[in-house]
Amino acid sequence: MDRLEELLHKTQEKSIRISVIGLGRVGLPLASVLASKGFKVNGIDVNTDTIESIKNSKCPFYDPSLQDNLEETVKSGNLTVGTKMESNFNVLFLSVGTPKTEGNTVDYSQLFNALNEIVKADILGKLIILRSTLPPKTTEDVIIPFLEDKSSLRCGKDFGLAVCPERILEGKAIRELNQLPEIIGGVNEICNNIVKSIFQEINPDKEFVITSPTGAELTKLFTNIYRYIGFALANELAIWSEMYGVDATEVIKGANYNYERCNIPIPGFAGGPCLSKDGTFLDNNTTFSSIVSTAWKLNESIPQHVINSIKKNIGNLYNKKIAVLGLSFKSGSDDLRNSPSLKLVGILKTTGAKVIVHDPYVKDTISLKQALENSEVVIIATNHKEFQNIKEEINQSKPKLIYDVWSMYESKDYPSLEYHRFGDGSL
Amino acid sequence: MDRLEELLHKTQEKSIRISVIGLGRVGLPLASVLASKGFKVNGIDVNTDTIESIKNSKCPFYDPSLQDNLEETVKSGNLTVGTKMESNFNVLFLSVGTPKTEGNTVDYSQLFNALNEIVKADILGKLIILRSTLPPKTTEDVIIPFLEDKSSLRCGKDFGLAVCPERILEGKAIRELNQLPEIIGGVNEICNNIVKSIFQEINPDKEFVITSPTGAELTKLFTNIYRYIGFALANELAIWSEMYGVDATEVIKGANYNYERCNIPIPGFAGGPCLSKDGTFLDNNTTFSSIVSTAWKLNESIPQHVINSIKKNIGNLYNKKIAVLGLSFKSGSDDLRNSPSLKLVGILKTTGAKVIVHDPYVKDTISLKQALENSEVVIIATNHKEFQNIKEEINQSKPKLIYDVWSMYESKDYPSLEYHRFGDGSL
Question: With b meaning 16 or more CB within 10 Å and e meaning fewer, what string describes A314-326?
Fold first, then answer.
């Protein structure tokens, strides 16, 4: 029997060992869920803090549902973790980061560090599943030639390979791993079938979209670009609304209301480690301005625009105490990568303002009470649900100005204060 | 009793006379539907052909459901039409065109011709409802001052005014007039209530979004811009897919499949009288490249891109016979305004090609059979449903190349011919 057919049988019998390299927000939920379904899973990460944390059954980032799952799988012994590759795996998920360099090109260093370890571990008869977000053709033009070259084995015959990008929402990993259709771009049918067989253990009714490796890379990028453009458009409409003195959020809600052809997001910061990066993986291929690059320019300018608006109202920010509420890039998350709120704080500091940050999800930020005390400006910069119920506290602290980036409140919530929201046309 | 309150009572008793100025694809369905609900409606249009056609119960453009409605309302006498304003109306809908000039600014000529007639007819105690698409602030900064100045009456007191933009799909006017929520931006509550009362005669359960005049103008523009950007993004993704030799339509279908955060349209031509224009009403306010202007540039370039792709495959087009299937800007329509297919034909002619056009909805185009005969290239340029079932005819005519702008077919439908679709990465 062919080696990969053998692997398929072993997978169907659930007698495979799975490795997951990269235990971040993509890899760890996957490793833990697979372990909870009875697979023997070994997770690898170069970060010793991450490994220590997991060994102590503690999720290294904020995700309550994953936390419960992790406690169970570490206790059961199905999930083991370490900093070194073990060679006794049958299937390996690669979920390391592929961030942008400062020059906006892709940084493959984590990817190739991992691939180097993988070939050392011997890949004969094994399946490599690429779970990271990759620029198109990375698999066909770089990863497969690399693996074949270093191992002297043939991809699709001696070892298997599939691109299977994650598309989960941060903080909702457990639910979404169960529900979302999986994109599978294997080098051949047998690879696709092994991947299917693994995910069917998570959910027997799991749906699949079968494509090529490059098709799978593009599917992931298209998904995120679509979302990013939507947020950028909302922000562009907010900027225009300001020119006309009309509240963009109200107009958008009206435009969407029971009108199925319209689904514009609410204006706000748009960034994070995925959305603001993935578009460049395609845009880098283009010599002229694309919609993606125009959207990127716009979204990246919103923190400065917020500061400009605040200055219009209260003037010079030098020595003024400013409370920034929320530092992470999205609600309910502690993830600071490419966070527009972090950028806002950085620019604010260049104005000479005294910037104080409170974020209930981010360690080393101060309490809400301390942040509000004597602050002249309060900026709601992340739409954490905790910020939906703090109008009493803000009203009591009597700032000169409240700037609500996310339209979480309305003017009438602050009857005796100066309240503005992004895109409301009042500044 | 206040004059506008009186008008509200008359409206509720259905004893008002309604005028509709502009009997195009927006005004005529509205006039006919209101007449079918028992209102006495007088329709006005400067185009004598339009008036003659309606008098003969014939819809001047393609809309089968409107055709039936029109026959009934003309016969009943509830709908009368003419080229001259009558002054005995109580409520007037203004639904004239507001096209772009060649310099991309708005052309108000139809609007002001109509407003001049309206003030001559005396507007005391009457309500003017603006149904046309307007650049933001047109109502507050131009129309209201104009009407007050010319009539020496006060808006909101002596006469009423509301912005109530249409958002129907061409060809589906009757159904959508019944179903869609109406945006109402009246100058005061009484005006809003009169408009509501009229639309509740069309559907007692009609829903409303109440806003300001400028809010209503923006709501319409936001709706169309959102759709236009979606089509442009699909086209940008198609261009990128071509660089990687991957079929964009397949990837987009995969990305959308049971993934609620993704809803990318299929690539194709994007134009028409509304979508390609409405964005400029906001973009004209901006000195730098906006997402809207970038999207416009992209969508407007697709016809040239199609021709470039065809040339890559078969070379110089000089003297080659090319059949273009579909001339209107969208499926099931005879509307040629800002049609990318029309632009395609124009550019093709500059190449020296012999261009033959077939469109089942457009008069003065030739038959499918004649178009296909001896054509070296067949371009499916509009996604008319009639084109879903013509593969036999195309296969028999044996063109050297089929170019499918709308991904209506697949390669396997043309087993012995050269078939390419926009964004499939094969050219």
Answer: beebeebbbbbbb
Asked whether residue B268 falls in the same domain as residue B140, the answer is no
What are the structure tokens assigned to B394, written together? 């195309």
What's the CA gap between B271 and B252, in Å, rounded?
A: 21
Contact (CB<8Å) A254/B226? no
Which pair of structure tokens corresponds to residue B293?
A: 């202007």
Q: Using DSSP bridges, classify how beta strands A419-421 and A401-404 pair: parallel, antiparallel or unpaired.
A: parallel
pLDDT in tens, A122-140: 999 999 999 999 999 999 9
Contact present, B27 and B43 (Cβ < 8 Å):
yes
Is B274 one of the annotated active-site residues of the chain?
Answer: yes
Residue B217 forms part of a structural domain: no
Please name the helix (run of DSSP H) or strand (run of DSSP E) that holds residue A230, with its range, or none: helix A213-244
Asked if A162 and A141 sit in the same domain, the reply is yes
Q: Percent of chain B, pLDDT > 70? A: 100
- Are A145 and A292 part of one and the same domain? no
**CA dist., res. B328 & res. A4, Å (int):** 53
Contacts B292 to A, Cβ<8 Å? 236
Residue B56, domain member (yes or no): yes
Q: For residue B67, is it within any domain?
A: yes
In sequence order, which ranges of A140-184 are alpha helices (DSSP H)? 144-151, 173-179
Chain B positions in Cβ-Cβ contact with residue A254 (cut-off 8 Å)? 183, 209, 211, 215, 219
- pLDDT at position B102 is 86
Per-residue H/E/C for A81-96: EECCCCCCCCEEEECC
Residues of chain A where predicted confidence (pLDDT) is lower than 70: 1
> Would B128 be classed as within a structural domain?
yes
Structural domain boundaries enclosing B13 = 3-211
Instruction: Please give the DSSP secondary-structure letter assigned to residue B138.
Output: I
The domain boundary, picked from B186, B211, B236, lies at: B211
Regarding whether A241 and A94 lie in a shared domain, the answer is: no
Can you read off the two tokens belonging to residue A275? 């959305």
Q: Out of A137, A225, A244, whose CB is closest to B244? A: A137
CATH number, domain at B297? 3.40.50.720
* A330 lies in the same domain as A234: yes
For residue A223, which of B421, B250, B251 has the smallest C-alpha distance?
B251
Name chain A contacts of B164, Cβ cutoff 8 Å. Answer: none
Count of domains observed in chain B:
2
Distance from CA of B73 to the nearest CA of A (A): 28
Could you give the ipTM of this predicted complex? 0.94
Residue where a domain terminates, one of B211, B236, B258: B211
Non-local CB neighbours of A40 within 8 Å, separated by 6+ positions: A16, A17, A18, A78
User: What pLDDT score does B1 carry?
Assistant: 65
In tens, the pLDDT along A270-301 reads: 999 999 899 999 999 899 999 999 999 999 99
* Contact residues for B232 (Cβ-Cβ < 8 A; gap 6+): A291, B270, B294, B295, B296, B298, B299
| Residue B65 and residue B123 in one domain | yes
Does B284 lie in the same domain as B180?
Answer: no
Distance, in Å, from the CA atom of B316 to the CA atom of B301, rounded to the nearest integer, reads 19
Q: Are B179 and B249 in a shared domain?
A: no
